[in-house]
Amino acid sequence: LTEHTAHSAWLHDDAFAALGSRRVVVAGDGALTGTVAEEVAAATARFGGAFSRLEVGDGVSDAELVLTLSPPLVEPVETPMVSTGSTGEGTDESFRLTREAGAVVVQAASDAGLLHGLFHVVRLGEAAFDGPDADETHAPATDLRMLDHWDNVDVHPVMGQVERGYSGGSIFYDHGYVHADLSRVERYARLLAAVGINRVAINNVNVHTREARLLTEDLGDVVRVAAVFRRWGIRVHLSVSFASPITLGGLDTSDPLDQDVAHWWVRAAARVWDAIPDFGGFVVKADSEGQPGPFAYGRTHADGANMLAAAVEPYDGLIHWRAFVYDHKQDWRDRSTDRARAAYDHFHPLDGAFSDNVVLQVKYGPLDFQVREPLSPVLAAMPHTRVALELQVTQEYTGQQQHAVYLGPQWSQILRFRFWDASGGEGGSPTVADLATGRGKAVEDPGTGTWRKPAGGFAAVSNVGDDEFWTGHPFAQANLYAYGRLCWDPALDPGALLDEWAALTFPGTPSAVRDALHTVLDRSWETYEQYTSPLGVGFMVRPGHHYGPDVDGYEYTPWGTYHFADRDGIGVDRTVRTGTGYAGQYPAPWSAVYESPSTCPDELLLFFHHVPYTHVLQSGSTVVQHIYDSHFDGVARVEAMIGAWSEVSTLVDPHVSERVSERLAEQLRSATEWRDQVNTYFFRKSGIPDERGRRIY
Ligand code: GCW
To answer: Which SUPFAM superfamilies did the record assign (predicted)?
Structure first.
């Protein structure tokens, strides 16, 4: 049981009981139909059902479930943008589920769609067969549902095997080599397929010497990995170094406008697609944190991205070009530079200049995956560019998988945000999900009335490693689960996703366990926010590894992440009137809402404004009292999480339970440290005591 639970995550064998005990027919050809058939054969063998493999159209009178290829069967989903040229969009992954008199038929136009249909039936469990008659079509919100691994082939002296990895080693690499045994990758691919992920970049965006060679002499390793993912409908991408023509090709330049450089990339792409015909494309971090890029040659990021785009265009390849570009060597004394402005300042002028197969990959916030940031204004500023939303499933700044922090609610809030509507109403203006998927109203840019390009979908940094639970903290699995499901349908409710995940991961456990999981996880994002950096100001983490509190850790560094606390107040003035002007990068009405401290939402106040400690929030509390209250409250909530868990911990696999209890104890220790350092810091700065006289050091 122990082994089993640890490795199966949300594909616990018992989650297949409903399907496995039925008479199931699989019909059609295609590699992924073979995968579907294997899944069904294994499940029916285990649970006493019956499996047969037929040709499409064969009579199947007594089957309780038919999974069949049957093109063309689905009305085209709402795809208002005509994709011309190479857009990387292809396979129709939709499926149709009909249920009549208890017999369920899943039909799909492609074998990929059939695989998604299979996992949909698994998720439904008995409800797939018990429900009323139905006829539903399910289609992903976007074709681009990607995970990025920050895995290094070599162990990096500072970052280790996996940069910002909190789950042990890499599932792909071990000290300079690709694992000989890829069975763990196979299990991972199966888990990803079950939540709808269809693209994976397998190496770190910081591309070091050894990793760069995956593109050339070590391509054979990528071929092996791609073969594993292919069986699960997932395409492989590589992160590449912009300097590859120099470091790998022996040229003396990587100037994107140099003919030899362009030819080098054309040949590199040809070799890759020759070896891996369904290869996805390249991910590029350029001119960022020391990575090479076009700036060295006085070229723009459009010059750089488009040169690569031309090389991969014949194969329908994509260039995921990251917008995470800023000056990481700024002088902290220089108040005119604001890191938050950087991505917009660099990329907004380039809107419309990128080729159709370039996806601009934008972190959700303007800084760096903080527990609370406003949405990056770049997402709204590029109507003529394919923009992807980048999230961080690995919990670099949210507890590093030591703390139980369920990020579903954060992502859901991000996806539902509307740049052109501050009323919170369903006013019809596009959500961030619309911008990333190209659905709904997003197609028409509200600013200009012009048509947007096909969208860029979703990307996120994976949280998986060779840890026995995949994710270090067993509950961090729920984040990966939720990310995949939200990519498929951004409107899904994060609380319901938690239930789905729990039912598949711990099938048959008493409802008390489910209730405890909700108690622990439902508000855990908010709880983490409470005991860490306050009111959107960010950071205050230990430099380097980013775990635990250090209020001034980054204050006098070149990284551009400051809080400016002094004896009178705290926060960053990013207003147009007196500050860095960042608030002006938003469209109306948000530019005005953020500009004024009286309308700026409390949770972002210190991101946009420098205010006195005595400033009264919309909540009625002063800033300093809010800091005290939220930090005491945050720790109290962690204590309550531990209480809730201890009541059910004996009801789940002891192995899981032990790991969870261990991590909750560390969360409490760490949260207490955060509380005491932050409260003490602000008490000493401000001299203002806690109204409630609680202990501050
Ligand atoms: O969040 C920061 C991390 C870096 C990372 C960088 C990025 C891969 O601290 O480790 O580098 O972002 O997103 O490129």
So the answer is: (Trans)glycosidases, beta-N-acetylhexosaminidase-like domain
Rounded to 5 degrees, what angle do the CA atoms 425, 431, 433 make? 140
Residue 375 makes CB contacts below 8 A (sequence gap 6+) with 364, 365, 414, 417, 419, 432
* Distances, alpha carbon 522 to alpha carbons 159, 394, 498, 499, 646, in Å: 31, 18, 8, 11, 17
Partners of residue 65 on adjacent β-strands: 24, 104
Are 192 and 171 spatial neighbours (Cβ–Cβ below 8 Å)? no
CA 289 to ligand 1 centroid distance, Å: 8
Q: Which of 338, 396, 526, 573 is catalytic?
A: 396
Q: State the DSSP string of 167-229.
A: SSS-SSEETTEE-S--HHHHHHHHHHHHHT--EEE-S-SS--HHHHGGGTTTHHHHHHHHHHH
SS3 letters for 354-400?
CCCCEEEEEECCCCCCCCCCCCCHHHHCCCCCEEEEEEECCCCCCCC
The DSSP bridge partners found for residue 644 are none
- In this structure, what are the phi and psi dihedrals at residue 578, rounded to the nearest 5 degrees? -125, -5
Q: Average pLDDT, stretch 678-689?
A: 98
And the tokens for 607?
């991101």
Residue 485, C-beta contacts closer than 8 angstroms, at least 6 positions apart: 195, 196, 492, 497, 500
The interface pTM score, or ipTM, of the predicted complex is 0.99
Condensed to tens digits (0 to 9), the pLDDT of residues 107-151 reads 999 999 999 999 999 999 999 999 899 999 999 999 999 999 999
Q: Is 396 a catalytic residue?
A: yes
Q: Is the CB of 150 under 6 A from ligand 1?
A: yes
**Locate tokens 């509307």: which residue?**
418
First to last CA, the chain: 47
Are 458 and 142 in contact by the 8 Å Cβ rule? The answer is yes
Residue-wise pLDDT tens digits, 264-308: 999 999 999 999 999 999 999 999 999 999 999 999 999 999 999
Cα(369)–Cα(388) distance, integer angstroms: 15
Among residues 29, 136, 274, 289, the one annotated as catalytic is 289
Pairing state of beta strands 177-178 and 173-174?
antiparallel
**Domain annotation for the chain: domains and CATH numbers:** 2-138 (3.30.379.10), 145-505 (3.20.20.80), 528-572+610-686 (3.90.1330.10)
Q: Which of 255, 368, 373, 529 is catalytic?
A: 368
Number of H helices, E strands in the chain: 22, 20
Residue 99 in contact with ligand 1 by CB distance below 6 A: no
Residue whose CA lies nearest to ligand 1 atom number 13: 324
Distance from Cα 410 to the centre of ligand 1, integer Å: 19
CA 178 / ligand 1 centre spacing (Å) = 23
pLDDT, tens digit (0-9, with 9 covering 90-100), for 142-185? 999 999 999 999 999 999 999 999 999 999 999 999 999 999 99
Q: How far apart are CA 281 and CA 201, in angstroms?
A: 9
186 among known catalytic residues: no
Torsion of Cα atoms, 425 then 426 then 427 then 431, to 10°: 110
Does residue 325 line the site of ligand 1, with CB under 6 A? no
Q: In what order do the strands lie in the sheet with 134-138?
A: 50-54, 23-27, 65-69, 103-108, 95-100, 134-138
User: How do residues 488-497 score in pLDDT, each as one tens digit?
Assistant: 999 999 999 9
Q: How high does pLDDT run on average in the chain?
A: 93
Cβ–ligand 1 distance for 539 under 6 Å, the answer no
Q: Which two tokens stand for residue 49?
A: 């059902």
What CA–CA distance (Å, rounded) separates 465 from 417? 31
Residues 323, 387: Cα–Cα separation, whole Å = 10
Residue 452 · residue 445 · CB < 8 Å: yes
